[in-house]
Amino acid sequence: MSAAEQRILTEIEHSLRTNDRAFATRIDRMNAAQATGRSPKWTATAGTVLVVAGIMTGLMVAVVVLAAFHI
After folding, report:
1. Most buried residue, 16, 18, 47, 49, by most Cβ within 10 Å?
2. Neighbours of 13 (CB within 10 A)
3. Per-residue tens of pLDDT for the chain, all 71 residues
4. Got the DSSP string for 9-57?
5. Which residues cross the membrane (predicted)?
6. Are both 1 and 30 inside the same structural domain?
């Protein structure tokens, strides 16, 4: 990246931080999560997997209980 391009990007970032602090904060948090390896996408995926696993476990327990009581 050229020095001129870097300067333009720095100006855009400064303007963003000045004019839309909430958006800049969200971007900072996403960048921090990616730097530590915790992507919001992976967090959502893991959450979904846990919910589905919980539902399946509940259904299996219900089937076992119903079978035990011959209902």
Report:
1. 16
2. 12
3. 888 888 898 888 888 888 888 888 888 888 877 666 666 677 788 889 999 999 999 999 999 999 888 76
4. HHHHHHHHHHH-HHHHHHHHHHHHHHHTT--HHHHHHHHHHHHHHHHHH
5. 46-69
6. yes
CB 33 within 8 A of CB 40: yes
Q: Based on the domain organization, do 60 and 32 belong to the same domain?
A: no
Do 34 and 3 lie in one domain? The reply is: yes
18 CB-side CA count, 13 A:
6
Kindly report whether the global pTM for this prediction surpasses the value 0.85.
no
